Amino acid sequence: MRVIVAEDVLLTREGIVHLLSEAGVDVVAAVEDADALLRETARLHPDAVIVDIRMPPSHTDEGLVAASRVRDAVPGTAVVVLSQYLEPAYALRLLEGHEDHVGYLLKDRVFHPAVLVDALRRVTEGETVVDPTIVARIMGRKRAHDPLADLSVREREVLALAAEGLSNKAIAARLFVTDRTVEAHMASVFAKLGLAETPDAHRRVLAVLALLRA
């Protein structure tokens, strides 16, 4: 797996590079700003990029904007965005318009190489990964109008695990049920959320978006 790391803090950038290299990931470039990320992505065509959401010059959402531009400029490049804070709205922005090959993780995940490498593997394979802490926060909210209200407890569990990027097989193993049972729960989730099957719509990602909008 060939990866570019974009992080403006030198020590953090070098730490991420070291951890990934130790895990067997080929880090082909490490850059400090969004412009360098775009330039190196166009030159090297990596499998994935890891980018901090807050980058120079304003340290607001430059990384998020750069992630979108990377996907537009080099289609098929997977993107994992790192955030220091719980920001579901940013996760939603990342996913809308680019509904696969994307991940949104809290920055402290970089201290758990297995988690970061697993997320990279999933997004390069075309999956969507949202940090489980964000998913748990959203699922725990109390809302006047809850679009997920019709889901059963088990269906909510399945949707939350799907939002974290788990496959049906992985969800089945986590919940100690059969693959067919998970498929049935997902089908029920799609039906209750009004997600009709169409050739150009990925219902699994649309369900995750519905969760993030909740």
Describe the structure.
Helix content is 50%, strand content 14%. With 214 residues, it is of the alpha/beta class. Strands 2-1-3-4-5-6 form a six-stranded parallel beta sheet, with helices on both faces.
SSE layout:
Layout: E1 2-6, H1 10-22, E2 26-31, H2 34-44, E3 48-52, H3 62-73, E4 78-83, H4 88-95, E5 102-106, H5 113-124, E6 128-130, H6 132-139, H7 153-163, H8 168-175, H9 179-192, H10 203-213
Parallel strand pairs: 1-2, 1-3, 3-4, 4-5, 5-6
Distance between the termini: 34 Å
Mean pLDDT: 84
Low-confidence stretches: none
Overall geometry comes to globular
Percent of residues in helices comes to 40-55%
Count of structural domains: 2
- Gyration radius, to the nearest Å? 17 Å
Tally of contiguous helical segments: 10
* CATH level-four homologous superfamily name of the largest domain: Response regulator
Q: Tell me what portion of residues adopts beta-strand conformation.
A: 5-15%
Give the spatial strand order of the biggest sheet.
2-1-3-4-5-6
Structural class: alpha/beta
CATH class wording of the largest domain: Alpha Beta
Biggest β-sheet strands, sense, barrel: 6 strands, parallel
Assign the CATH topology of the largest domain.
Answer: Rossmann fold
The name of the CATH architecture of the largest domain is 3-Layer(aba) Sandwich
Secondary-structure element order, N to C: EHEHEHEHEHEHHHHH
